[in-house]
Amino acid sequence: MPKWGMVIDLETCTGCQACTTACSMENNRLPGENWQDVLFYQDGTYPNVNLSWLPRPCMQCENPSCVSVCPTKATYQTDDGVVLVDWDKCIGCKYCMIACPYGVRFYMDEKPLIEPDIRGVFPGDSQRTWNPPYKMPDAVEDRSKGIGIQPKGVVSKCTFCYHKISNAPAGVADLDEDDPATKEFTPACVRVCAPKARYFGDLDNLDSKVNQLIAEKGGVRLKEETGNKPKVYYLSGGGSPVVPGVRSTRKS
Amino acid sequence: MKIGGIAMSTATITARGGPQPAASEDARQPGSTLPSVLLLGAVVGLVLSTGFVLYSLSEQGHAAFNTNSAGIVWGLPIIIYDYFLLTSAGLTMVASIGLVFGVREFEPIARRCFWLALSGLIGGVAVLFLELGYPLRALYAVPLSMQFASPLFWKVLLVGAYTVVLLLLLFTMDATRREPSIPGTARPLGALAALLAGAITLVAGSVYGMMAMRPFWFGGEIPVTFLIESVMGAFAFAIFFTYFAYGFRPSRMPVEIRQLFAGPLGTWFAVMIALHFLFHSGRTVTGLWSNAEGMQVWGHMVASPWFHLALWGGIVLPFVLMAVTSLRRNPAIQIVASLLVMVALLVSRYEFIIGGQMVPLFKGSWAPGLLSYVPSATEWALLLVGLFLANSVFWFSEWRREM
């Protein structure tokens, strides 16, 4: 059984947000409710300003606090280590949103994060809160894994495109968009990354590209102090602090 | 003086002073219209407020709330739920002082405290049900999940057991509802209810205290803080509603209750307020001192007038009123102190729950440093739903005692 993980090379990432767009299209996301977001950080004041960015999917933690707090086991971890939400078990208590250190979860049944509310343009039916024109095929939807159009009253999050990666050929070390054999099983955000800043593979496979990159370039994880052990690693070229997100935003 | 338009004496309560009803007898005049009038008023208020909330929810769903996925996901409904639940648990513990621990002076208010506990519980849980995405699913999905690692699993389990025990207890006591003493058969149930109530407060504190990713909440002292706040709030509610039940006329109260109010009740209340002050001020000072990311909320909170209203008006002032012997026996002073504590606790609960969510967890520097939240009209209406529902249950119990 693989242990899927992702590596994001911040030295290569251009902050173009193609990953965000691809994820939104692949997973029927509402505008603004980005499972895969790119966060921007501004340091200093004009003329000495530095702009940096940080792509942020769900960290798919090894010890996910969202799984521990969920009172119905609606949030669970698959055998291959991916954290999913069973929409048929979720009660919408939102405790997982409280407990996730990375803020990657979204509740459906609230004011839209971006106006106007597009749900009014493409109204849904009893099963779906809305019917976007670009929705995924019905056969791919799986409520027990939080894949598809998010119903009302439940929480959703990035699934690492579980509907793709779970069908990958057994034993592959990496899911690479450049490899015809694995292209279709590669997560949308990885597949569209134009500068090739994202890599996806089996963290338990010593031959995988992700393991090689983490070892050679010093991959780091966000908020290690929480003990959640993310399976998303960042490469920053060794500078410190490596990720803008770990800097305090507290005013001096 | 007048409170709520009802004349009452400002004289200090003494067990011996003034015309007194016979001991061991509810002194309220049989056939008093007060409970029935208040019950009717509460039911009308409940119908109106629930009607407004249900209309809003049917039109907008939970978009009628001002919470969202940007950060503030638990808003006023959760604050109301916790406020009512903790008050309920505290009232059961206060009732058990007499019933379980044998402090006889407290026994005369035990019955009313148990009813108040049930009232608060029903009011709080009703509000929670209107907040959850799938409340009916929660009824079976949580107990059957066996998710032992989740504090919410234990909280739901304990609240379920607590509800059953409280209902059984009140059913057991119903046959003797016009007598001041509690039947012996109710005592084991009372002990069990108190045990569950204590566990609920500790677990409710753990729901927040275990969240290491939210430094404002994180800490082992939070469950203890909840326990203290719960008992302190319970004293306030017990004092206020006991006076209310007798039309704010202490002379109508049975002698045993007058003895309790003139004696140890004020002291116990003062001690709980003092403990609350220690925990509250301790957390505030350490929070203001800390440079840790997430603790900047304390600076924001302390700059708010609501914080000072709750601290000076809702903790320090009631403590002074209850600490000075000559003041704490005065019925009007007791009512004022209890009202101040009741309001301040709600403000503190609001600050605590919203404060823990104000720092965006991971949103980049283009997100605001601190998130803002103002409850919507529907959320405020939920407070009315909780208040009117709790009052409906309580005044029903008072009305029934008249029968």
Could you walk me through the main structural features you see in this protein, from its secondary elements to its overall organization?
The complex is a heterodimer of chains A (252) and B (403). Chain A is an alpha+beta fold and 252 residues long. Chain A is built from 6 helices and 9 strands, in the order βαββαββαββααβαβ. In chain A, a hairpin with a 5-residue loop joins strand 4 (75-77) and strand 5 (83-85). Chain A is globular, with a radius of gyration of 18 Å. The termini of chain A are far apart. In chain B, 68% of the residues lie in helices and 1% in strands. In chain B, strands 1-2 form a two-stranded antiparallel sheet.
Strand content of chain A: 15-25%
* Helical stretch tally of chain A: 6
Widest beta sheet: strand line-up of chain A? 8-1-9
Q: Give the assembly state of these chains.
A: heterodimer
Strand content of chain B: under 5%
Percent in helix of chain B: 55-70%
Give the CA-based shape of chain B.
Answer: globular
User: Greatest chain-chain interface?
Assistant: A-B, 53 and 48 residues
Number of strands of chain A: 9
Structural class label of chain A: alpha+beta
The radius of gyration computed from the alpha-carbon positions of chain B, rounded to a whole number of angstroms, is 21 Å
What is the CA-CA span between the terminal residues of chain A?
48 Å
- Order of SSEs of chain A, N→C? EHEEHEEHEEHHEHE
Largest sheet report of chain A:
3 strands, mixed
Q: Could you spell the SSE succession of chain B in H and E letters?
A: EEHHHHHHHHHHHHHH
Give the averaged pLDDT of chain B, no decimals. 90
Helix-strand category of chain B? mainly alpha
